[in-house]
Amino acid sequence: MGPRTSAVPASIQRFDTIDVLRGVSILAVIVHHTFLRLLFAGYPMARRVPPPVAHLLFWNGGNGVTVFFAVSGFLITLTSLRRFGSLREMKPSLFYRIRFARIAPLLLLTVAVLSVLALVHAEGFQFGHKNPPLWRAVFSALTFHLNWLEARFGYLPGNWDVLWSLSVEEMFYLFFPLVCLACLPFRRGTALFLAVLFAFVFMGPFARTVWTTNEIWQEKSYLGGMDGIALGCLTALLTHWLARRHGGRWGRTQNRSLLALQLAGAAIIALTAVGPRWFWHLLPGRLDLYGSLLSLATCLVMLGSVLRQQARVRFPPSRLTAPVRWFGRHSYEIYLTHEFVVVWVTLLFVHLHPNTNPKPGGIAPYQPPLPHMFHWFVATLLLTAPLGWLTARFVSDPLNRRLRGARPPS
Q1: Which residue has the higher pLDDT, 119 or 408?
Q2: Long-range pairs for 395-398: beta carbons < 8 A, 24 or more residues apart
């Protein structure tokens, strides 16, 4: 480890609205995975509530990942701009060191624990005969092609499956600093760099529909997720340019315009969360523009809220959103560990309310009352919080600081 003077501190402030976006997204992912576990066990809760309510509560996990992609591209780019001064001055070795320090410790621990549970054939964690060998899953998780592995062999157990989005993100960031150095130092390099990002935005809808018939690959392909990351990068560049041009000072009309962008993005996010069936009719053609529109809406929220927060034109953080913002700040830790809680809580639920229908996925003849089942969802959400906090407190945060060479907090 290098000397203390080589420490790499964080170079970006926290943005309350972005923490809310991430918090709502991780909550949607947890509820979605809990719902799927119960559905496969024979408890289809979606049939017992109105369709719009069912979609809002149970089917927004994929939307949550889409929001994560856009937020990730925005924060990584904005952080790099402030740390290096400009993307033209990007230092790949430092960029990779920062990403490794943030991602690797918990990823390695998660893969190790999942491997042990698979080897001892723990219920809910064992590999089926249709799954690839365990070593292939470990190798794919650590080399960021687990999404490709699933497209070829089928879905892995849920605890492994969540790592597909990490494969998309880290493959993008593997080439991000290299593209910066390849394009930006040269004449008209900025135009070329922007063209590369817009190309990813353009290819995303095609990658999710036209370019493949593999349903898993349509959902989890690299290009199918990178359009959201690229939109986040472009929004960060625009945010940085506007902040420098105006010096963080906005007139009343400009503040209203930023607020209007923020509210418009929030409205689109709300519409996509309620139900996609009627929403799809608003989008032309066969292309999957749904994810692109959700990413764009997320970017509008981030653009307006970040510029207003930097100008101190905002209300203080509400206590009502404090729990959601806490989930947002710990979203990475909760994302990688929540399936442990989901699996064990679901197994306990099925044990207490056994499904006597022998058909796989069959509906249990006795369905617990809805309020009782919702209590289990709440319990699952609450139990993911301490596990996420423990992994952040004793794994991610200390090892992140140590790998960066930073001092522990006082």
Answers
A1: 119
A2: 395/105, 395/106, 395/109, 395/333, 396/102, 396/105, 396/106, 396/332, 396/333
Q: Is residue 105 part of a domain?
A: yes
Angle between the N-to-C axes of helices 189-207 and 164-183, in degrees from 0 to 180, rounded to the nearest 10: 160
Contact 36, 339 (CB under 8 A): no
Q: Which two tokens stand for residue 344?
A: 């064990």
Domain count, the chain: 1
282 CB contacts (<8 Å, ≥6 apart)?
none
The model's pLDDT over 314-326, given as tens digits with 9 standing for 90+, comes to 556 678 889 999 9
> Which residue's entry shows tokens 């924060």?
75
Q: What percent of the chain shows pLDDT beyond 70?
A: 88
The domain of 339 spans: 4-404
Does some domain include residue 410?
A: no
Cα–Cα dist 136/156, whole Å: 11
Q: What is the mean pLDDT of residues 293-310?
A: 92
**Please, which residues have CB within 8 angstroms of residue 231's CB and are 6 or more apart in sequence?**
70, 73, 201, 292, 295, 296, 299
Lowest average pLDDT, out of 31-35, 99-103, 156-160, goes to: 156-160
Biggest CA–CA distance in the chain, Å, is 70
d(Cα 138, Cα 225) in Å, to the nearest integer? Answer: 22
pLDDT tens digits, 228-277: 999 999 999 999 999 888 776 777 788 888 889 999 999 999 988 887 65
Exposure on the CB side of residue 98, measured as CA atoms within 13 A? 20
Which amino acid belongs to residue 59? W
**CA–CA dist 310, 14 (Å, integer):** 10
Stretch 75-98: mean pLDDT, rounded? 94
Residue 409 lies in a domain: no
User: For residue 336, how many other CB atoms are within 10 A of its CB?
Assistant: 24
| CA pair distance 88, 143, nearest whole angstrom | 27
Amino acid at 28: A
Q: Is 386 a domain residue? A: yes
Token reading at 407: 């001092």
pLDDT value, residue 93 = 94
Taking the CB of residue 177, how many other CB atoms lie within 10 A of it?
20
Cβ-based burial of 379 (10 A; exposed 0-12, middle 13-18, buried ≥19): middle
